[in-house]
Amino acid sequence: MKTKILMVALMLLAMTPAIQAKSSTKTVAHRGYWKCEGSAENSLTSLQKAHDVGCWGSELDIWLTSDGGLVVNHDPKTLDGLKIEETDFKTITKSKLKNGETVPSLKDYLKAGKKLKPMILVLELKTQSTPERNIELAKKVVDMVKSMKMEGQVEYIAFSNLVGTEIIRLDPNAKVAYLNGDKTPAELKELGYTGLDYHQKVLKNNKSWIREAHDLGLTVNVWTVNKADDLQYFIDEAADFITTNEPELLLDLLKK
């Protein structure tokens, strides 16, 4: 009898990490929730739809225009071929997205997101063409977030370590995660990051990094995970956040 009780206890203990992961893993919509009717990547509609389906956060991409404006777009060019870094703010914000909306300014995006609190806005600062522009982008974004009193509703991510460490310098209390996948959790901790945000292949190839990050007090996000099997893998591995183009699929898996 005692042996059976011990076996049951051990089974429950083995199940605990997965149970905890399902209750704690959070859903981040990649470029908003755009794979639905009337939406488009990085549109204000995609932001609203991410909120409407219950996402914890919505990721967006930020560029600096030729005259120092801040706009939200993933690629370095707009759909009509304008190079954002070489085009002025007024012209870029007249360019159309796939759903007919115009490329939003960061200010308009933040204003819309502020109304959707407590959903978190995950701000990706895109790597610019020069170190000077990277520094300018970091300063302007942090200044805008502070001026709108949204420090508690945003987190920052960047591929550029220059950008990431500049954000940390500008706002030591900010939550900042590194995207590039070429630094260990220990290296990120030393640099002052609060988390890592790596491609799923990086974390599958370095299976100890999620545990190591957690041991160091870092958060773990993984991108861009869209298949049910992969989503479940990272739920079971206790990733803090999963960035996905299929937020409703992830939300359904988290309910099971």
| Largest sheet strand order | 1-2-4-5-6-7-8-9
Number of strands: 9
Distance, first to last CA: 32 Å
Instruction: Describe the global form.
Output: globular
Rg estimate, integer Å:
19 Å
Instruction: Look at the helices and sheets and give the structural class.
Output: alpha/beta
Discrete helix count: 11
Task: Specify the helix fraction band.
Answer: 40-55%
Major pleated sheet: 8 strands, parallel, barrel
Q: What low-confidence regions span 5 or more consecutive residues with pLDDT below 50? A: 1-10, 12-22
- Reading the helices and strands in chain order gives HEHEEHHEHEHEHEHHEHEH
Q: Determine the strand fraction and express it as a percent band.
A: 15-25%
Average of pLDDT: 93
Describe this structure in words.
With 256 residues, the chain is α/β, with parallel strands linked by helices. The chain contains eleven helices and nine strands. Strands 1-2-4-5-6-7-8-9 form an eight-stranded parallel beta barrel, surrounded by eight helices. Strand 5 (154-158), helix 6 and strand 6 form a beta-alpha-beta unit. Helix 5 (131-147) packs parallel to helix 6 and helix 10 (228-236) packs across helix 11. The two termini are 32 Å apart.
